[in-house]
Amino acid sequence: MVVDLPAFCDLHVHFREPGQTWKETIRTGSLAAARGGYTLVCAMPNLDPVPDTLEHLAIEQAAIDRDAVIGVLPYAAITRERKGMELVDFRALKGHCVAFSDDGSGVQSREMMRKAMEAAAREGVILAAHCEDNSLPGEDPRSEWGPIERDLELCAETGCRYHVCHISFRKSLSLIREAKAAGINVTCETAPHYLTLCLDDIEDHGRFKMNPPIRTAEDREALIEGLLDGTIDAIATDHAPHSAEEKSKGFAGSANGIVGLETAFPVLYTRLVKTGRVPLERIVEALATNPRRIFGLPEAPGDRVTIDLDTPFVIDSARFASMGHSTPFDGWEVYGKVLKTVKDGKIVYNG
After folding, report:
1. Which of 34, 144, 251, 348 has the least CB density, counted as fewest CB within 10 Å?
2. 212: cis peptide before it, omega within 30°?
3. What is the distance between the alpha carbons of residues 69 and 31, in angstroms, rounded to a whole number?
4. CA quadruple 81, 159, 166, 270: dihedral, nearest 10
5. In this structure, how many other beta carbons lie within 10 angstroms of the beta carbon of residue 135?
6. pLDDT score for 212
7. Where are the extended beta strands (E) located within the chain?
């Protein structure tokens, strides 16, 4: 069966330009997105220079205007150089970015995060938080849920519009579920790899290394339940390409990050929909309609993706449009091949 669906929107990608174009560029990243059925993505600010001023943001925007084949919306940083010490000028930047994030780094200071939330609330902008306590190892559950717990308290006090990036622990999910029930203005995302993999799947290879890391089967099952009950608003890929050399040093020595734009739908469809775990409609909500809704982005009725649900194919990272080829799903037989992606009525990918 071939289906026509709303094109996807990813709230969390890393396109590496400016500053790290040996990993990815706006051009290659947006081509990968189009191949995956995406027509709009939000690009994180761990760049060089960091988009923490209008001048720096303009450098990234120029590359987007020149090279993107789909919509690419930049994030601005929360703090100068993403160092957590000094706030950016939210008022000056807010008309030029989709939201504010220090992604790749968590804001470590409670007082600095309070100031950021107060400023964000005044300016009516979204803070998208990478929640990681640098004083704890990444494998420790508290390294993720501790900052989430702190931020939810601050969010309740300030009224800030708060989005939690790439949740991976069941405790994180529980905190967000409780906060939503209490009326706190919070949304969250998880990624395809946290919904489909667990510790038992990890091999000693860089393609299994990302931050946050893959968690237990119990965490994975809790996240699936959170997707079903609506606690998890969106599925974002955290597409984070690196060079082959950076990912060739085994699990311990490789850089954090995997690519995901070209595999997200097939992996989710094969592992969750075909197995009867999650309805197709819920996956489409989390990939397409909810991301736009929760970030206040306009609907795009002219953005569509055509997908073959019946014909199996094998994921081959060597054929990716992305410059990054590191994925834990390489070699998987999957269903849900993207045949065509249309943006504003124009074909941007035709497979």
Report:
1. 251
2. yes
3. 6
4. -140
5. 10
6. 96
7. 2-6, 8-13, 38-43, 71-74, 126-129, 161-164, 186-190, 234-235, 304-308, 313-314, 333-334, 337-343, 346-350
CA–CA dist 160, 158 (Å, integer): 5
Q: At what angle do helices 54-67 and 26-35 cross, to 10 degrees?
A: 50
Considering only the top CATH level, what class is 8-299? alpha beta
Pairing mode, strands 8-13 and 2-6: unpaired
C-alpha angle with apex 41: 323 to 156, nearest 5 degrees? 130
- Tell me if 74 sits within 8 A of 98, measured CB to CB: yes
Sequence letter at residue 350: N
For residue 139, what pLDDT is reported? Answer: 86
Query: Contact, 190 vs 213, CB < 8 A?
Result: no
Which pLDDT belongs to residue 294? Answer: 98
Can you list the residues of the chain whose pLDDT is less than 70? none
User: How high is the pLDDT of residue 337?
Assistant: 99
Contact 330, 273 (CB under 8 A): no
In whole angstroms, give the CA distance from residue 102 to residue 93: 14
Nearest residue to 286 (alpha-carbon basis) of 194, 186, 191, 196: 191
Backbone φ, ψ for residue 171 (5° rounding): -65, -40
**10: left (phi > 0), else alpha (psi -120 to 50), else beta?**
beta
Q: Which two tokens stand for residue 10?
A: 């990813």
Distance (Å, rounded) from C-alpha 124 to C-alpha 94?
Answer: 9
Give catalytic residue positions: 238
Spatial distance between the Cα atoms of 51 and 76, rounded to a whole number of angstroms: 5
Q: What is the pLDDT of residues 279-299, one digit of tens each?
A: 999 999 999 999 999 999 999
- pLDDT value of position 198: 98
For residues 153, 182, 234 and 72, what is the CA-based torsion angle, rounded to 10 degrees? -60
